[in-house]
């Protein structure tokens, strides 16, 4: 708030006045260039610092300071140093930064310590590039506006670079959006060129020099802040990575005072509502499929998607435009192909996926990323380019026995600079993939076993009731019938064999094999008729088969007749061959027999069908 | 968490620790990374092979139709056998064999059906 930052400012100036300490180690900043970009709701500061070691000892640590009201809102900080000479050979190397104890430094300053790659010896220079992103430093002023007013925000900074080292030359340039600039602090060497505000260059300043400036300007950016974002990334080795994101978005700009008039909002040619935003643009990875955009009410149809080979752009429009202080909530889900994100190296698998929200220019106050790995994953570890809070959970989902391990990563105050890739390492063997179909197979198998048990078990309550006994008898009759059927089929098969041997005879003229076949079929048929006798006897004796047994007897009789006729035919043909009479003679002799045989066969088959249907 | 030693030759990016509040517990589990002297490389050059599903995803619908059809046919054979055979003549071996084969096909068929309809189990 404006009040507390003014107090901070005064405290700072007081502290500097009281604690005017000499230079903190012997580094000197020979040139400092600062560029602040306030085109979005985040203030992005890029600093290029040329550090010279003017002392006698080598220094391996560099101290970065920010005023406390900025330091509390610092979301992202990265320091790199460029190797190579000249602007063309810039290769940036990230250095480690950590918050340091402020010994000898006033309390109203946040301190960060940068570890230099190699100690800076006497007389050496080093160029550092610092990128810092601050949220909540563009304060809306006035804090409550009506629908028709423009959105004015205020930025407080220092024209002179606050550092524990002496600064030889420095300059600051603030890039404002291409809109109205209400006012700005005018110091010496201040220039406004178009929408760029330049302060400096200032020469030869002491350490901890600070001159506050305030810039009041109109911001056209959407101050969309997600209070709460839960991102669930589910990995399935069957070929899909499913991402589901639950958003609670609020407009953190100047609050709306008074009522909202839809008529004014949609009036042409001058619509009122410049401070509101309607659209949010999300940039998803290429080949994202099955994208849905819904909330608790149902599907939200105001969305557009455009995909190409490098990205998939999703433009979503919430159910209403968002003015200051208004909230909305929604869920976005999409599926990604597995081979774009899951890799294997050195025996371990890892998932390489982006960390933050895909929506551009969205600040997230609390981000929770849950990476759900398949069941059976072991040795899970996470690598992130920045600090996150980790924990592990278990999630029970489809076809799970022990549950799936979930890695939960939490981070507060996430800005789009954090949208880098994280890696989740784990071990998994493909055999564990089989457990899912095995579960389904065993489920179906249990179903079948139940059927088998049901048909075999005897569930009747009374074992001596007449219906039960009648049922038992009928079962026996059916069994006998089936056996009779099988025997008759076997007889018919042997008849077929006999006919086949006759055909062979006509082809090859070999009488001996024919006779041998005849002999074997004779013996087979004798055996079969022996088996048939007891079955027939049973059928005749049982009372429930009374209507069937005549049919069965008829069948057996017909079969016998067929047998005899076939045997007769066989003998005539063989005799004919022995006597070497012509083919036509033989055919004439067996013609009538053949007809009878065919007729008999037909009748037998009809009877068999009838028995089948019982 | 246990501290993890960094592997030599691993090219991962640094962790910069920024805490927003006092007393913030940083339960970090992460490799304290060494600076890389080269530009940030894409992971493709790190001998990292992409993993795909054991069966091509485009085959899921076809596979599900065929395996389910075969499974249902064998189930039909099983139930026909149950219905037409009499108590005395039933053979347990035949029943178990048919039901085993049918359940294998039905199990895989239902798995591919779930995958083809988007439920990536």
From TrEMBL, chain A:
Pathway, per record: Protein modification; protein glycosylation
Q: Which Pfam family, an example, fits this chain?
A: Ribophorin_I
Q: Name one GO biological process term.
A: protein N-linked glycosylation via asparagine
Q: Which InterPro entries match?
A: Ribophorin_I
* Keywords linked to the UniProt accession: Endoplasmic reticulum, Membrane, Signal, Transmembrane, Transmembrane helix
Kindly list the places in or outside the cell where this protein is found, as annotated in its UniProt entry.
Endoplasmic reticulum membrane
Instruction: Give the signal peptide, or none.
Output: 1-25
UniProt keyword Hydrolase, yes or no: no
Q: How does it sit in the membrane?
A: Single-pass type I membrane protein
Any one GO CC term of this protein is: oligosaccharyltransferase complex
Spans through the membrane? 437-455
Assembly with partners or alone:
Component of the oligosaccharyltransferase (OST) complex.
Give the similarity note. Belongs to the OST1 family.
What's its job? Subunit of the oligosaccharyl transferase (OST) complex that catalyzes the initial transfer of a defined glycan (Glc(3)Man(9)GlcNAc(2) in eukaryotes) from the lipid carrier dolichol-pyrophosphate to an asparagine residue within an Asn-X-Ser/Thr consensus motif in nascent polypeptide chains, the first step in protein N-glycosylation. N-glycosylation occurs cotranslationally and the complex associates with the Sec61 complex at the channel-forming translocon complex that mediates protein translocation across the endoplasmic reticulum (ER). All subunits are required for a maximal enzyme activity.
The identity of this protein, by name, is: Dolichyl-diphosphooligosaccharide--protein glycosyltransferase subunit 1
In which organism is this protein found? Arabidopsis thaliana x Arabidopsis arenosa
Automatic annotation (TrEMBL), chain B:
Task: Pull one GO CC term from this UniProt entry.
Answer: oligosaccharyltransferase complex
What kind of membrane protein is this, topologically?
Multi-pass membrane protein
Give a yes or no for keyword rRNA processing in this entry: no
Localization in the cell = Membrane
Name the residues that span the membrane: 63-84, 96-120
Specify the superkingdom: Eukaryota
BP-aspect Gene Ontology terms: protein N-linked glycosylation
Keywords assigned by UniProt, alphabetized: Membrane, Transmembrane, Transmembrane helix
- Give the protein's biological function: Subunit of the oligosaccharyl transferase (OST) complex that catalyzes the initial transfer of a defined glycan (Glc(3)Man(9)GlcNAc(2) in eukaryotes) from the lipid carrier dolichol-pyrophosphate to an asparagine residue within an Asn-X-Ser/Thr consensus motif in nascent polypeptide chains, the first step in protein N-glycosylation. N-glycosylation occurs cotranslationally and the complex associates with the Sec61 complex at the channel-forming translocon complex that mediates protein translocation across the endoplasmic reticulum (ER). All subunits are required for a maximal enzyme activity.
Q: Which family does it belong to?
A: Belongs to the OST5 family.
Quaternary structure (record):
Component of the oligosaccharyltransferase (OST) complex.
Q: This chain belongs to which protein, by name?
A: Dolichyl-diphosphooligosaccharide-protein glycosyltransferase subunit OST5
Q: Which organism is it from?
A: Arabidopsis thaliana x Arabidopsis arenosa
